[in-house]
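Worked problem 6 (solution included).
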Amino acid sequence: PTSDCTITTKRTHTKTHTKTHTTLGIKMEQAVQTAVETAGYSDRADVTSLILDEKCISQDIEGLDGFVNLKTLSLIKCGIVNVADLPNLPELRKLNLSQNRISTGLSTVAKKCPKLEQLIVCDNPKLTKVEEFKALTDLKHLQRIDAEGCNFEDEEHVSTIFAMFPEGQMQNVDGYNEKGEEVYSDSEDDSEDEEDEEEDRDDEEDDLDDLDDDLDDDDDEEEVYEISPVVFDEFDENNKFGKREMRRVIKMLRALTG
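Solution. The predicted structure is:
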């Protein structure tokens, strides 16, 4: 089965200086190979996601041959100027080229990524001609384009891009739909879901802490609790246990839930 192969971009403040100098010395081809080897892949065809944000410096796209099942490719802030050497990526769905120095070449993207659904080219200051996006109209699955932060001569570039595509195909340009209504991107929805899950975990931990505190306060009481015989038979033959055993249950739950 295919799996994700990623290089994360998380860095602590104390290591930022060192990381910056290391990144400047790494070419894209080297970073790609390191990612594959670190993840333990022997065949690039098994990789579905490759994230190289800020992990290499290269004016050209290089070293990406053989990723025939790649679905997500992110090359944020890699110094890219030219995308002419983008290889065939027949299964790619999402391409992020934000914070680079691209000015042309979107026709190459259209030819090499026939199943592309999302293209993100935010903050490419040299991308000034909205006409560049006409080359993408052959991509029948393309539904989202993010190009905020580019220096377009056309101030109405959002509506101009929508007009290039058949009505109803493009769902999101710079966070707006065809009617000019603000919409959320998939990445924003995922981020919100992760935040909600994290809040739920925090609430659960708080509840367990409160229960543990209550148990400490009432440690000498004789109160017992009825529990499921299927789950906690090992605590007491009569399926009852006191506060001290409850504390053991809490520790077990915390270990299981991380």
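Discussion: DSSP finds seven helices and eight strands in the chain.
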